[in-house]
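User: Sequence for 3-methyladenine DNA glycosylase below. Tokens please.
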Amino acid sequence: MSDSTPTTGLVIGPDGLARPAWAEQSELLRAYYDTEWGMPVTDERGVFERLSLEAFQSGLSWATVLRKRPAFREAFAGFDPEAVAGFGELEVERLMSDAGIIRNRAKILATIGNARATLALREEGTDLAELVWGFRPAQTPAPRAIADIPTASAESVALSKELKRRGFRWVGPTTMFALMEAIGLVDTHLVGSHRRGTSGVWG
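Assistant: Structure tokens for 3-methyladenine DNA glycosylase:
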């Protein structure tokens, strides 16, 4: 049985470690929180995958996306931008009939378009990971309670605008802040969590 600290939102798990309540909802979420969330992702494919999945998550729970991630990876060719950029109408219809993923045509089309925009960045002498990491802030939040965690920032607004300028879709400021949290640009682990400060990006 877990003990909770409602004033902060931290929960002490059966292993004695403190996590936010959302990370104690299932073994899947706990493993994701403990091993992935907030750790640096600096390769193009990794950032493209997470940008894509954050877009699919919009309006839904992250647990839903995480459960479907293996199917997403299979359906979207391992999120290889070159492969996804080549998807046409046949692939769109295949994806729309794939019950293993979230079948949202607008998000599917955005993912394909974002793969093409990712390739266009290469032609300009940069890549998606380099562009995104260029918006790392000078400091990170240090939330002591769930209510202290922002949902957007000046940097996520600026990143959203830059990606949209370059042809990306479904990259609003809130979605981009979630991406920044997920790949380590900011550390929004609650102060007191066993994961706070473990990314190596922030002290």
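The two ends are 32 Å apart (CA to CA).
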